[in-house]
Amino acid sequence: MSEKWIQLSNRLIAKTKRGELQWQELSDSDTFQVVVGKNAIEIEQTGFGDDFEIRVRDGSGKVVDKFDDIIISRMTNSNYATAFEEMFSLIRRQISGTEQLLDDLLEELGKDEEIPF
To answer: What is the pTM of this model?
Structure first.
């Protein structure tokens, strides 16, 4: 088990939330990839949709390491399944353009601080 898995997970989550990573959908709609330097990182939704695996690929595309939310959760006594699920959902929304569309709609509608009910 590796402390670096925790660091990598935390950085992926934070940078994805800030929109700093350019994720791409692979042919399998349950897998996304981001290229970092000459290497790549993939996240795949597995099982019944509630498990997530992270794979690290070297420059030639070979998987050199992998781990999942269950391992990280056990190492940290935290719920990384929820964090990975939120990241996965955000990646999907960013790729589909949903986030930008909602931002555009909210800007067009302007600010309305009063709750209508």
So the answer is: 0.83
